[in-house]
Structures are given as structure tokens and as C-alpha cells.
Amino acid sequence: MAEITTIEWTRNDDGTPGRTWNPVTGCTKISAGCDNCYAETIAERFRGTVAFPKGFDVQIRADKVNDPLKWRKPTRVFVNSMSDLFHNEIDQAWIADIFAVMAAAQRHTFQLLTKRHARMRSLLNDPAIVDQIRNRALGKGLPADQWQWPLPNLWLGVSVETQQWADIRIRPLMQTPAAVRFLSCEPLLGPVKLDRRHTHCPTHDFAGGFCTGECPDLITPDWLIDGGESGRKARPAHPDWFRSLRDQCQDYGVAYFHKQNGEWTSQTPDRGPDPKRDIALLNDGTVHRPGQLPPRSEWEDRQLVPMYRVGKKAAGRELDGRTHDAFPAVTA
Q1: CA–CA separation, 51 vs 231, rounded Å?
Q2: Which of 100, 106, 202, 254 is the least buried, fewest Cβ under 10 Å from its Cβ?
Q3: Residues 173-191: pLDDT tens digits?
Q4: Residue 8's domain spans which residues?
Q5: Among residues 133, 127, 194, 206, which one has the least CA distance to residue 158?
């Protein structure tokens, strides 16, 4: 399962596709973004086959762990597109070995995304684990004088689908050593503000109950990816949610990548409106059928938009007539 990938944000600087690398497969649901998991759908469809003998059960694929060391051409690599490396069923010794491969395979750039923010922070701040990674990396061929921590070729990210998970996951990410930190706001299920201030800062002034100072653990990430949901049960994303993240990234100097609009679009399709298939969406996420709207007084300030289900390809990647393809400036 080391495949050339069509994932838009896992591509090389020259535009060629990157790879996926799955030394682990399988996972369990942990938040709303997992509800319609594409990886689970694929793995369960092929349960019992060579590709997925245990379906979506968590499984170490020991025969795949060292694969990146064999790839000669430098490439970007999405780690565990079919799992979450920090799942509690994955022994920390395996995690250390997988990190050691990334350390030794210096020619590649690895993109690692997790929803298990707490375990990520705990392990990667543990000197004993870091020392274990180093020793294993040296055993895999890394010259001792080339060891660096954090790994210079690793981009580390967390999934942020709603404000709830932004408040929970971003701070641990910023407290974890990484050359590049990123957020994956996909599937985006509600509006997200990046500058929410915590309420337990001992050194800064407060306004409205939130810290107004420049706290080290509130540094903005290097990169943000967002996108709407695709698939049979896809939930719609209000275009204002994307616009808000785009504008915040511009204000904070964060590279912004809009992956897709998802199955739904607010642009009137060629087929024309269809009351049986279309919806009206408020920017708080409330869904109504066009003929069943609440009184205007209840939604006037919540930016209602019509949403048409047209499919991922037809909905496309443009936001307000533009494609956003920015990558972070720091590379391996």
C-alpha cells in the first residue's frame, strides 16, 4: 500500500503526484469528521483480501514499514492515509520505528495527520521516545551527524472539522515539535476561528475572558487545508466557512489550500433547481428544504444560501472563481 496518490495536497513541487505509505491500516471513529470515513468504506469493502485481510481493524503492516527507504526518487508522502499513527492500539515501539524510517529517508517529505492530538504531543515530547527514534534511525542507515529533532522532512498536522475540535486540537499541535505544522479542516462541518484565546494564561492581560497576549502556544500553523465532504452521505459546507478560513490565513500569513467544495455547491447547476434534491443552508450549519424555511427573521443574519448536490467533480475546487494551491514555505 505505497501508492501513487491523487490527493491534491500530496504532490511534489513540480506538480507530479506524491505517494501514500500505510505501515498501519485500520482505525476507529473519534469525532464527527470520522462519520463517513472513506478509508473504512474501502477497507471493509475488501475485507478478507490481500490488501485488507482484517478490513478496517487496526493492523501493523510490518512488510511495508521500510518501504520509503527503497524509493530512490524524492517525493512527498502522506503517512497512513488508511489509519491514524497515534491510535492507542499501535504500540509506541512501532511508532518509533515508523518515525525512524522517516528520519532515515531524508530525501522524502512526509505529511502526517492525526486526530489523536494528546498521544502525539505526549510521545513526541518524551526524550526516551525521541532517543529510541534516533537509535533506530541510525540502525536504518542515517549518519549520526545528520540526526535532527524535530525531523526536518516531517509536516505534522491535526484534523479540525469544527470549532470544538479547533479549540481541542490546535494547542497540542503547537506544543509538539515539528518542522511544519498544519491543519486539515476537511471535511469542514462548521465555521472555525483560528485565534480563539485560552483562559488560563498567567502572564497576559485579559479581555472578554480570553487572553489577548502573544502566547507561544497560540502561534498560528504554517499551512491550512480545507474542503467539503464527498461521498454518498456527504454533508454540505457553507461557502462562508471556506471564505472565513481563507481570509484568516491571509491575515495570519498561513499558506492556504482549498482542496475541494465537496458534493455540494452554492452555484446554480446547469440542471437548474430541484426542490427534491436541493437544500437551504444557514451558516450555523442548519439545513432546511427550500419549501420549509423558518421565518426570515430567524435566518436573515445567518446568511442562508441554496445548496445543490452536483457531485465532487462538478462542484470543483474553485472558491469565488479562484483555485487556492498554496504550500508552506519550509520544505525538506
Answers
A1: 22
A2: 202
A3: 999 999 999 999 999 999 9
A4: 2-193+222-268
A5: 194
